[in-house]
Write the C-alpha coordinates for this entry.
Amino acid sequence: MTDSENPYYVAYQREKMARLEVELLLEDSTRQLYEKNVLLQQQIDLIRQQQQSLIQQEKLASLGTVAAGVAHEVNNPLAYILSNVRSLTCYAEDLLVMIDAADNQPIDQVKLQFIKEDLSELSSDTCQGLMRIKDIVNHLLFFARTDSSGKSAVQLADAIEFTIKIFRPMFGNIVIKREISAVPMILFNAGELNQVLMNIIVNACQACDAVSERSSEIVVCLTQADAKICLTVTDNGCGMDEYTLGRMFDAFYTTKPVGTGTGVGMSIVLQILHQHGCTIDVKSELNKGTEVMIFFPVDPSGYQIDM
Protein backbone atom coordinates (compact mmCIF):
# COMPACT_ATOMS: atom_id res chain seq x y z
CA MET A 1 0.00 0.00 0.00
CA THR A 2 1.41 3.33 -1.04
CA ASP A 3 1.30 6.46 1.10
CA SER A 4 -1.40 7.90 -1.12
CA GLU A 5 -3.52 4.86 -0.45
CA ASN A 6 -2.91 4.86 3.31
CA PRO A 7 -5.98 6.54 4.94
CA TYR A 8 -3.96 7.55 7.99
CA TYR A 9 -1.38 9.28 5.84
CA VAL A 10 -4.06 11.02 3.80
CA ALA A 11 -5.76 12.23 7.00
CA TYR A 12 -2.40 13.42 8.34
CA GLN A 13 -1.66 15.39 5.18
CA ARG A 14 -5.15 16.88 5.18
CA GLU A 15 -4.74 17.98 8.81
CA LYS A 16 -1.26 19.35 8.09
CA MET A 17 -2.55 21.47 5.22
CA ALA A 18 -5.46 22.72 7.29
CA ARG A 19 -3.07 23.67 10.10
CA LEU A 20 -0.83 25.57 7.68
CA GLU A 21 -3.83 27.43 6.30
CA VAL A 22 -4.92 28.36 9.84
CA GLU A 23 -1.40 29.50 10.72
CA LEU A 24 -1.21 31.63 7.57
CA LEU A 25 -4.66 33.06 8.32
CA LEU A 26 -3.64 33.77 11.93
CA GLU A 27 -0.41 35.43 10.80
CA ASP A 28 -2.31 37.60 8.32
CA SER A 29 -4.92 38.51 10.95
CA THR A 30 -2.18 39.35 13.47
CA ARG A 31 -0.46 41.58 10.92
CA GLN A 32 -3.74 43.36 10.11
CA LEU A 33 -4.51 43.75 13.81
CA TYR A 34 -1.07 45.24 14.44
CA GLU A 35 -1.48 47.70 11.56
CA LYS A 36 -4.91 48.72 12.82
CA ASN A 37 -3.55 49.14 16.37
CA VAL A 38 -0.80 51.40 15.04
CA LEU A 39 -3.38 53.41 13.09
CA LEU A 40 -5.66 53.57 16.15
CA GLN A 41 -2.80 54.83 18.34
CA GLN A 42 -2.01 57.49 15.74
CA GLN A 43 -5.65 58.59 15.76
CA ILE A 44 -5.70 58.67 19.59
CA ASP A 45 -2.53 60.78 19.62
CA LEU A 46 -4.08 63.11 17.02
CA ILE A 47 -7.29 63.45 19.06
CA ARG A 48 -5.25 64.26 22.16
CA GLN A 49 -3.29 66.90 20.27
CA GLN A 50 -6.51 68.39 18.92
CA GLN A 51 -8.02 68.35 22.42
CA GLN A 52 -5.00 70.21 23.80
CA SER A 53 -5.29 72.68 20.93
CA LEU A 54 -8.98 73.24 21.68
CA ILE A 55 -8.22 73.71 25.37
CA GLN A 56 -5.57 76.28 24.53
CA GLN A 57 -7.89 78.08 22.10
CA GLU A 58 -10.61 78.21 24.75
CA LYS A 59 -8.12 79.60 27.28
CA LEU A 60 -6.94 82.29 24.90
CA ALA A 61 -10.52 83.19 23.97
CA SER A 62 -11.38 83.57 27.65
CA LEU A 63 -8.25 85.59 28.33
CA GLY A 64 -9.27 87.87 25.50
CA THR A 65 -12.53 88.65 27.28
CA VAL A 66 -10.65 89.96 30.32
CA ALA A 67 -7.81 91.70 28.48
CA ALA A 68 -9.32 95.17 28.95
CA GLY A 69 -9.93 94.54 32.63
CA VAL A 70 -6.42 93.24 33.18
CA ALA A 71 -5.00 96.27 31.36
CA HIS A 72 -6.93 98.46 33.79
CA GLU A 73 -5.57 96.44 36.73
CA VAL A 74 -2.01 96.98 35.48
CA ASN A 75 -2.50 100.64 34.60
CA ASN A 76 -3.60 101.59 38.11
CA PRO A 77 -0.32 100.66 39.85
CA LEU A 78 1.66 101.85 36.81
CA ALA A 79 0.15 105.32 37.13
CA TYR A 80 1.28 105.89 40.70
CA ILE A 81 4.61 104.15 40.08
CA LEU A 82 5.35 106.68 37.32
CA SER A 83 4.23 109.53 39.58
CA ASN A 84 6.47 108.24 42.38
CA VAL A 85 9.45 107.89 40.05
CA ARG A 86 9.00 111.51 38.91
CA SER A 87 8.91 112.64 42.56
CA LEU A 88 11.99 110.56 43.37
CA THR A 89 13.79 112.14 40.40
CA CYS A 90 12.95 115.64 41.66
CA TYR A 91 14.07 114.72 45.19
CA ALA A 92 17.35 113.38 43.84
CA GLU A 93 17.94 116.63 41.97
CA ASP A 94 17.12 118.70 45.10
CA LEU A 95 19.47 116.58 47.22
CA LEU A 96 22.28 117.02 44.72
CA VAL A 97 21.78 120.81 44.81
CA MET A 98 21.82 120.75 48.62
CA ILE A 99 24.99 118.67 48.68
CA ASP A 100 26.74 121.01 46.21
CA ALA A 101 25.70 124.07 48.24
CA ALA A 102 26.42 122.56 51.66
CA ASP A 103 29.90 124.12 51.85
CA ASN A 104 28.63 127.65 51.17
CA GLN A 105 25.23 127.86 52.88
CA PRO A 106 23.10 125.98 55.42
CA ILE A 107 20.94 123.12 54.13
CA ASP A 108 17.20 123.78 54.08
CA GLN A 109 16.33 121.55 57.05
CA VAL A 110 12.56 121.79 56.53
CA LYS A 111 12.79 120.66 52.92
CA LEU A 112 15.30 117.96 53.81
CA GLN A 113 13.02 116.57 56.53
CA PHE A 114 10.07 116.47 54.12
CA ILE A 115 12.13 114.59 51.54
CA LYS A 116 13.33 112.08 54.15
CA GLU A 117 9.79 111.37 55.30
CA ASP A 118 8.32 111.12 51.79
CA LEU A 119 11.12 108.93 50.38
CA SER A 120 10.16 105.95 52.54
CA GLU A 121 6.48 106.15 51.58
CA LEU A 122 7.25 106.61 47.89
CA SER A 123 9.63 103.66 47.90
CA SER A 124 7.13 101.42 49.71
CA ASP A 125 4.24 102.35 47.40
CA THR A 126 6.39 101.80 44.32
CA CYS A 127 7.46 98.34 45.48
CA GLN A 128 3.86 97.38 46.24
CA GLY A 129 2.74 98.54 42.81
CA LEU A 130 5.48 96.57 41.08
CA MET A 131 4.64 93.45 43.09
CA ARG A 132 0.98 93.86 42.08
CA ILE A 133 1.94 94.02 38.40
CA LYS A 134 4.24 91.02 38.80
CA ASP A 135 1.41 89.07 40.45
CA ILE A 136 -1.01 89.88 37.61
CA VAL A 137 1.51 88.91 34.91
CA ASN A 138 2.43 85.65 36.67
CA HIS A 139 -1.24 84.72 36.99
CA LEU A 140 -1.80 85.35 33.29
CA LEU A 141 1.29 83.40 32.22
CA PHE A 142 0.42 80.46 34.46
CA PHE A 143 -3.14 80.34 33.21
CA ALA A 144 -2.27 80.74 29.51
CA ARG A 145 0.44 78.07 29.46
CA THR A 146 0.02 74.74 27.69
CA ASP A 147 0.23 72.24 30.52
CA SER A 148 0.83 68.65 29.40
CA SER A 149 2.40 67.50 32.66
CA GLY A 150 0.91 64.70 34.73
CA LYS A 151 -1.25 64.75 37.81
CA SER A 152 -0.03 66.13 41.11
CA ALA A 153 -1.45 66.95 44.54
CA VAL A 154 -3.39 70.21 44.20
CA GLN A 155 -5.05 72.41 46.80
CA LEU A 156 -8.48 73.05 45.32
CA ALA A 157 -9.17 76.13 47.46
CA ASP A 158 -6.03 77.82 46.10
CA ALA A 159 -7.04 77.00 42.51
CA ILE A 160 -10.51 78.49 43.10
CA GLU A 161 -9.04 81.71 44.50
CA PHE A 162 -6.57 81.89 41.60
CA THR A 163 -9.39 81.65 39.04
CA ILE A 164 -11.48 84.28 40.81
CA LYS A 165 -8.50 86.66 40.87
CA ILE A 166 -7.59 86.25 37.22
CA PHE A 167 -11.19 86.81 36.07
CA ARG A 168 -12.09 89.48 38.63
CA PRO A 169 -12.36 92.16 35.87
CA MET A 170 -15.33 90.23 34.43
CA PHE A 171 -17.36 90.33 37.63
CA GLY A 172 -18.35 93.99 37.58
CA ASN A 173 -21.12 94.38 40.16
CA ILE A 174 -21.53 90.62 40.64
CA VAL A 175 -21.15 89.60 44.29
CA ILE A 176 -18.88 86.57 44.77
CA LYS A 177 -19.45 84.64 47.99
CA ARG A 178 -17.06 81.91 49.13
CA GLU A 179 -17.97 79.10 51.52
CA ILE A 180 -14.69 77.19 51.64
CA SER A 181 -14.14 74.33 54.10
CA ALA A 182 -10.85 72.63 54.95
CA VAL A 183 -10.55 69.68 52.56
CA PRO A 184 -7.81 67.23 51.54
CA MET A 185 -5.83 67.83 48.39
CA ILE A 186 -6.90 66.28 45.09
CA LEU A 187 -4.82 64.52 42.44
CA PHE A 188 -5.21 66.56 39.27
CA ASN A 189 -3.38 68.15 36.38
CA ALA A 190 -3.01 71.75 37.59
CA GLY A 191 -3.41 73.35 34.16
CA GLU A 192 -6.51 71.32 33.35
CA LEU A 193 -8.01 72.13 36.76
CA ASN A 194 -7.65 75.84 35.91
CA GLN A 195 -9.46 75.12 32.64
CA VAL A 196 -12.38 73.44 34.44
CA LEU A 197 -12.74 76.20 37.04
CA MET A 198 -12.45 78.91 34.38
CA ASN A 199 -15.33 77.52 32.35
CA ILE A 200 -17.62 77.03 35.35
CA ILE A 201 -16.98 80.45 36.91
CA VAL A 202 -16.92 82.42 33.63
CA ASN A 203 -20.20 80.78 32.55
CA ALA A 204 -21.75 81.81 35.88
CA CYS A 205 -20.55 85.40 35.36
CA GLN A 206 -21.93 85.54 31.83
CA ALA A 207 -25.26 84.09 32.99
CA CYS A 208 -25.49 86.83 35.62
CA ASP A 209 -24.60 89.52 33.07
CA ALA A 210 -27.60 88.40 31.00
CA VAL A 211 -29.96 89.45 33.80
CA SER A 212 -30.41 93.14 34.64
CA GLU A 213 -33.56 93.26 36.76
CA ARG A 214 -31.97 91.89 39.95
CA SER A 215 -28.64 92.01 41.79
CA SER A 216 -26.28 89.26 40.66
CA GLU A 217 -24.64 86.75 42.99
CA ILE A 218 -22.36 83.75 42.61
CA VAL A 219 -21.75 81.38 45.53
CA VAL A 220 -18.69 79.10 45.47
CA CYS A 221 -18.93 76.31 48.04
CA LEU A 222 -16.28 73.68 48.83
CA THR A 223 -17.10 70.76 51.15
CA GLN A 224 -16.14 67.13 51.77
CA ALA A 225 -18.45 64.15 52.04
CA ASP A 226 -16.73 60.82 52.80
CA ALA A 227 -14.28 60.02 49.97
CA LYS A 228 -15.48 62.85 47.72
CA ILE A 229 -14.83 66.58 47.67
CA CYS A 230 -17.76 68.61 46.35
CA LEU A 231 -17.36 71.95 44.57
CA THR A 232 -20.66 73.77 44.05
CA VAL A 233 -20.97 76.95 41.98
CA THR A 234 -24.42 78.55 42.14
CA ASP A 235 -25.58 81.67 40.30
CA ASN A 236 -28.87 83.55 40.07
CA GLY A 237 -28.38 84.35 36.40
CA CYS A 238 -30.50 83.64 33.34
CA GLY A 239 -30.55 79.85 33.76
CA MET A 240 -31.24 77.29 31.02
CA ASP A 241 -34.30 75.56 29.62
CA GLU A 242 -34.43 71.74 29.45
CA TYR A 243 -33.27 71.60 25.83
CA THR A 244 -30.18 73.75 26.45
CA LEU A 245 -29.40 71.89 29.68
CA GLY A 246 -29.53 68.59 27.80
CA ARG A 247 -27.04 69.81 25.19
CA MET A 248 -24.66 71.84 27.32
CA PHE A 249 -21.91 69.18 27.08
CA ASP A 250 -22.25 68.75 23.30
CA ALA A 251 -19.18 69.93 21.40
CA PHE A 252 -19.67 73.20 19.48
CA TYR A 253 -23.14 73.80 20.93
CA THR A 254 -23.51 77.31 22.30
CA THR A 255 -26.26 79.85 22.96
CA LYS A 256 -23.79 82.73 23.08
CA PRO A 257 -23.52 85.32 20.29
CA VAL A 258 -20.97 84.77 17.53
CA GLY A 259 -17.51 85.74 18.70
CA THR A 260 -18.18 85.28 22.42
CA GLY A 261 -17.95 81.49 22.70
CA THR A 262 -16.43 78.52 20.87
CA GLY A 263 -18.99 75.99 22.08
CA VAL A 264 -16.31 73.51 23.20
CA GLY A 265 -15.74 74.69 26.77
CA MET A 266 -18.12 72.40 28.64
CA SER A 267 -17.43 69.37 26.42
CA ILE A 268 -13.74 69.77 27.29
CA VAL A 269 -14.64 70.16 30.97
CA LEU A 270 -16.55 66.86 30.85
CA GLN A 271 -13.61 65.05 29.20
CA ILE A 272 -11.11 66.43 31.71
CA LEU A 273 -13.29 65.48 34.67
CA HIS A 274 -13.84 61.93 33.37
CA GLN A 275 -10.10 61.51 32.82
CA HIS A 276 -9.57 62.39 36.51
CA GLY A 277 -12.33 60.13 37.87
CA CYS A 278 -14.68 63.06 38.64
CA THR A 279 -18.39 63.51 38.04
CA ILE A 280 -20.44 66.63 37.33
CA ASP A 281 -24.11 67.38 37.93
CA VAL A 282 -25.90 70.49 36.63
CA LYS A 283 -29.30 71.80 37.67
CA SER A 284 -30.80 74.85 36.04
CA GLU A 285 -34.09 76.68 35.69
CA LEU A 286 -34.76 79.34 33.10
CA ASN A 287 -34.71 82.89 34.50
CA LYS A 288 -33.82 81.60 37.98
CA GLY A 289 -30.21 80.37 37.88
CA THR A 290 -27.88 77.40 37.67
CA GLU A 291 -26.14 75.08 40.12
CA VAL A 292 -23.04 73.13 39.06
CA MET A 293 -21.73 70.39 41.36
CA ILE A 294 -18.39 68.68 40.71
CA PHE A 295 -17.31 65.67 42.77
CA PHE A 296 -13.55 65.06 43.08
CA PRO A 297 -12.00 61.90 44.51
CA VAL A 298 -9.74 62.61 47.48
CA ASP A 299 -5.97 62.32 46.97
CA PRO A 300 -5.01 58.90 48.44
CA SER A 301 -2.14 60.52 50.36
CA GLY A 302 -4.79 62.29 52.43
CA TYR A 303 -2.63 65.38 52.85
CA GLN A 304 -4.72 68.28 54.12
CA ILE A 305 -4.16 72.02 54.47
CA ASP A 306 -6.13 73.91 57.09
CA MET A 307 -8.06 76.95 55.90
The CA atoms of residues 239 and 289 lie 4 Å apart.
